Structure formats: structure tokens, C-alpha cells
Amino acid sequence: MDGLSLFDKYGYLAKELENITQVGDVITAANVFQEANPGCRKIVDRMVADNLLPGSRLEGRGHFENFFDQVNRGRHGLILMEHYSTVDLPILCYLLDTEFASVDPTLSRRIVSMAGMKLNEENPAIRVWAEGFSRIVIYPSRTLTAISDPAVLERETARSRTINTAAVRALD
User: Fold this and answer.
1) Distance from first CA to last CA of the chain, Å, rounded?
2) Phi and psi angles of residue 59, each rounded to the nearest 5 degrees, phi first
3) Are 139 and 119 in contact (CB under 8 A)?
4) How remote is the C-alpha of 86 from its chain's centroid?
5) Is residue 23 within 8 Å of residue 127, measured between CB atoms?
6) Helices assigned H by DSSP within 26-141
7) CA-to-CA distance for 40 and 162, rounded, in angstroms?
8) For a Cys-Cys bond, which of 68, 105, 135, 152 suits 115, CB 3.0-4.6 Å?
């Protein structure tokens, strides 16, 4: 690794990503489902490819193939991932595309992730990164615990209910 942050290494792409972004920076009940932006996805895939270590792969090929088979026969699938960073989903999708293209070249593009609203609202660079993937945006309840002003808490509690109700409908 070269020791550079993603921003240092790919900052030159910021303007290109900003020009192709399609979603706003405020989440409402009307925009909790956000379809993937293929332009952003293409750039994110290139960044992932540049940074994966040689030998990076998905383990348990048979489990993935069984999953693909079930989904392709009309069953619904749910991937529950413990993840630690914003790059986990992009890496999973990239590896699905590269390792399982012959089994199901469309699977990664059919994934709809659940995403906290901070991915849209707090950082424009993260928003365009997340925009490469279809997602349903939620208002995490833990966000409310950091609010000490009673008036703000009341307003944000109402907002969280509205957003999360819309997210459940979108999931359904």
C-alpha cells in the first residue's frame, strides 16, 4: 500500500463524481429508496480494483452458488453482513462481479442495502460513494441518543418515525 488516504489518492475524481451525483443530501420519506447510480458504481469499482490486495477473494464458493440458485428460482435472499466501513459493500459487490460473473452476472446489482442517513447527509464524498449502490435509507435510533435539546429531540424523533416508516414500506 502507498499509505495515502482514499481522498489523497482519488481526490482528483471528486469533481467527476460531483457532476454525476443524482441524490440530494437530505433524507425524507419521499427518497428513502435510492437506486444505484451506474456512473458512480463504475468509479467506485475502479477504486476497489486498485486497492484490493492480490489474492483477495470470497470464501465458501458453494454457499454463494447455492444462494444464487435459490434467488434465481424466485426465492428471496437476505445477506446479513457485519461491516466495519463504507467500503465493505463495494468490495463484496466487486468480488461478486469478478468471481461469480459466470454464475450470475447480475447479482451484485440486485442487492439493495440498508444505509444510515449519515451516508447522504454528513459528507458529500461518502454520499457519491454510497450512490453507486441501491439502498434503503434509515434513520438509526442511536442517532437520537446524542440529542440533548428537547425541542430538537422532539423534531428529530418525528422525522425518524417518518423516514423509518417509509423505509419499511420500501423494504416491503
Assistant:
1) 42
2) -95, 160
3) no
4) 7
5) yes
6) 38-51, 61-72, 88-99, 107-110, 118-121, 124-130
7) 28
8) 135
